Amino acid sequence: MAQNTEKIDKFQLITDKLITLIERGVKPWGKPWSATPYGNLITGHHYQGINPLICAIDTLLNEWEQPFFIGFAQAQEKNWKINKGSKATYLRWGGTVAIESTNSETGETNKHYKNAGRWFNVFNVACLDDSDSNEKISDYLKKMLVSSVNTEPRLEFAEALIIAQNADVVFGGDVACYVPFIDKIRMPNYEDFKSAIAYYATYLHELIHWTSHSTRLDRNNIGQFGSKFYAFEELIAELGAAFLCSSINIESQLEHHASYLNSWLSVLRDDNKAFFRAAGQAKKAADWLLENAGLNVTESIAA
């Protein structure tokens, strides 16, 4: 039976799951599949925005093997039963709408934004029983699963994305960072990284920081190391790099250093919507970099 999505604090539920994964040292946004995104098994549509990360959180917590989900009504239509005890994955649909109001005295028009998003529930294919149906889940999986592709084109795409930014980057040394007061990125040399993927994931992380400058997205989260502002900006950078890696089909490399994880945990525990705000800013930064490079990798997505 479909669960009542209105009586559950989904922000808190997802944040609690994220905290559990981080405490385990697990990468919630690292895709376990090389080229198959999270999406709907029946329609073939890929989830977008925050939803792939939510799917990854539930998939890792439940140790599901497939990245495919369907809605309750779709399961009923196929005569697939939801296994007893299975819990829905809550995804977010929609975003914000701009509302304008005019001051009757001054005539000045003000704009504010209202949350227009809503929740809907889906179930992973591992939660389904198709024994009473003529249509088998395995047949749909055969159509949906894609084989791994050669990594070289994806790396070339990452290189094109990076070069197009014309960022001021100094190579050498053993530190990767963005220095805001001089608007400069520092990166170790390519050959010093353990893999090409690690290099590009790190570079993209620093480019997300780079978008925070006042001449770009003016995101004032760069603070003292260990502060809440610093932790929030680091979360934005990791999520933004994950979005970019997903866009160009390379596996994201989430930083596991204890100081980062502890600072993220403190932010998440204090504010159960911090993850969603960070993801929104991360997506904005990732889209800005893609647009700045003249690259269009966005797919048309539906639930």
Structure description:
The two termini are 19 Å apart. This protein has helices at residues 10-24, 51-62, 72-77, 137-144, 152-163, 196-210, 228-247, 258-270, 274-292; strands at residues 39-40, 68-71, 81-82, 89-93, 96-102, 109-115, 118-124, 128-129, 169-171, 177-179, 184-187. 30% of the residues are buried. The protein is built from nine helices and eleven strands. Helix 2 links the parallel strand 1 (39-40) and strand 2. By secondary structure, the protein is α+β, with helices and mostly antiparallel strands. Helix 1 crosses helix 2 (51-62) and helix 7 (228-247) crosses helix 8. It folds into two domains: 10-144, no CATH class; 152-292, no CATH class. It is globular and about 65 Å long. A four-stranded mixed beta sheet has the order 1-2-7-4. Residues 31-35, 147-154, 255-259 and 298-303 have low confidence and may be disordered.
Q: What are the low-pLDDT stretches, counting only 5+ consecutive residues below 50?
A: 31-35, 147-154, 255-259, 298-303
Question: Percent of residues in beta strands?
Answer: 15-25%
Q: What is the radius of gyration?
A: 21 Å
Structural class based on helices, strands and sheet pairing: alpha+beta
Mean pLDDT equals 79
Helix content: 25-40%
Count of DSSP helices?
A: 9
Q: What characterizes the major β-sheet?
A: 4 strands, mixed
Shape: globular
Number-wise, the strands total 11
- For the record, the count of structural domains works out to 2
Please report the distance between the alpha carbons of the first and last residues. 19 Å
